[in-house]
């Protein structure tokens, strides 16, 4: 009897840990949804800028749009934070004892995929900053002339 009580307690603790993990994961999924919403807003601004340039004779009317860089940077940062969390979770899964070879292989594939997603998020932020700096440099050079 004591073994079954210990086993039941262990199972309950494992389920509670899994529930807590799902709760945390949902928060990071929500961050990704917010990031996607911000990206959608940026594309809406860009669409408005293009429409303005196509339809207006006076280009000065097209200058009232907000700067999209801070919004894009925030969106990319939220994605990066979430991706880091999910990479850590997939990395920890590699250390858990596995029941089957299939589970071990699956966790390894998930970890590799998470690493690629993490690298892509880092490259995206670096590219965003480089493009912004380049555009700023061009704008400053044009203002000096």
Name the descriptors.
145 residues; mainly alpha; 85% helix
Structural features, described:
This protein is mainly α. The chain has one domain. α1 packs antiparallel against α2 and α2 runs antiparallel to α3. The protein is elongated and about 80 Å long. The mean pLDDT is 90.
Uncertain runs: none
Looking at how many chains there are and whether they match, the oligomeric state comes to: single chain
The biggest sheet amounts to: none
Task: Give the overall form.
Answer: elongated
Strand content: under 5%
Number of domains: 1
Helix percentage range: over 70%
Tally of helical runs:
3
| Helix/strand order, N-terminal first | HHH
- Please report the total strand number as a whole number: 0
Could you tell me how far the N terminus lies from the C terminus, measured between alpha carbons in angstroms? Answer: 87 Å
What value does the average pLDDT take?
90
Radius of gyration (CA) equals: 23 Å
Structural class: mainly alpha
Describe what is shown at a glance.
Helix content is 85%, strand content 0%.
Task: Give the SSE layout.
Blueprint: H1 2-55, H2 69-93, H3 101-144
Helix pairs in contact: 1-2, 2-3
